[in-house]
Amino acid sequence: MVKRCISIVVTLIMLFSVLTACNKGSSGGAPDPENLTFGVTVSMISGYYTAMINAIEAKAAEMGIELVLLVADDDSTKQNQQMENFIAQKVDAIICNPVDGTAISSAVQMAMDAGIPVITVDRLAEEATPSKQIKGDAYGLSRDIMEWYAQSDEAKNLGRPTRTLVLVGQMSDSYAVDCLRAHREVIDENPDVFELVAEIPGEWNQDIILTGVQNALSANPDIDLIVSPSDFYIPPVRSALSQLNRWVTHSEPGHVYLMSNDGDVEGMQGVKDGYLLADGVVDARACGEWGVEYAFKVVMGEAENDGEVLSFPCFVVPYTRFDELAPSVYSYSELS
Fold first, then answer.
1. For a pLDDT cut of 90, what percent of the chain falls above it?
2. Where do the domains of the chain lie?
3. Confidence of residue 29 (pLDDT cuts 50, 70, 90)
4. Which CATH class is domain 37-135+284-313?
5. 138-282+317-334: same fold as 37-135+284-313?
6. Is the pLDDT of residue 2 over 60?
7. pLDDT digits over 179-220, tens only?
8. Class of the 138-282+317-334 domain?
9. 179 near 229, Cβ under 8 Å?
């Protein structure tokens, strides 16, 4: 009788264990929103990306999400390894700012196949379909800043086409491609305003840009305007112009007009101090925050894994409207 009772108890315990396991399985293994870990890999450190990282960290802290943050040092092989490490760690989601939109695609697909959502930020994965892709409208912004110049007093007062030097980012970067396409289009559409002197492929390398600008100014000392896709290029442009005593404000003799994109401290300080005519603001803060928010939504089943491209706010801050527009820029509090 005792043995029979013990057998019944053991059977009941085993049955309870099986039922409990089944109940857990029926929930689909839903993640715990209060116990999430996101892997983050960022292409490089610059003023813009520092602001984006700060926004990612702040939003994750606000939402109670743990981060594993890595920087790829502009090395696509290193970034692919970081992605593979995140997959091995079984993070809940990956936020990726690609070094190279094509080179990262296999790692993105590997993560997606492993059931780990991937959100790309600022740049696109070109040959894979991540969960979401978040970027600024670089094409629209670059058109806006060129069209602003075309209507400006500076362009009209020259009385001739503006001799223009265009700097170029890395052509495997969707952002750089969009900027260059917009710059070329507006120049072609306004032959009475712009005369394209040269384009300098910079590969997001400041040393290459420095040499390129030096050579361009040597061959074409009458360049009126330098157009950059990123504030990351401002230091080498400043160095090249300083060597010729031409790093002066746009109201001084010998100046070269300069326009750029990003809205980081380098660019906005330049507009404030009179060295840049305008800076196109790509909202790094929104980019980072959206990355975390959409990663969370996908993990929790509130958004689809459909590769949707989502554009965050961009706008131009010309020197003529600096006091009005600058306070809304993510870098404004850091200006001197």
1. 90
2. 37-135+284-313, 138-282+317-334
3. low
4. alpha beta
5. yes
6. no
7. 999 999 999 999 999 999 999 999 999 999 999 999 999 999
8. alpha beta
9. yes
**pLDDT digit string, tens, across residues 241-289:** 999 999 999 999 999 999 999 999 999 999 999 999 999 999 999 999 9
pTM of the model: 0.87
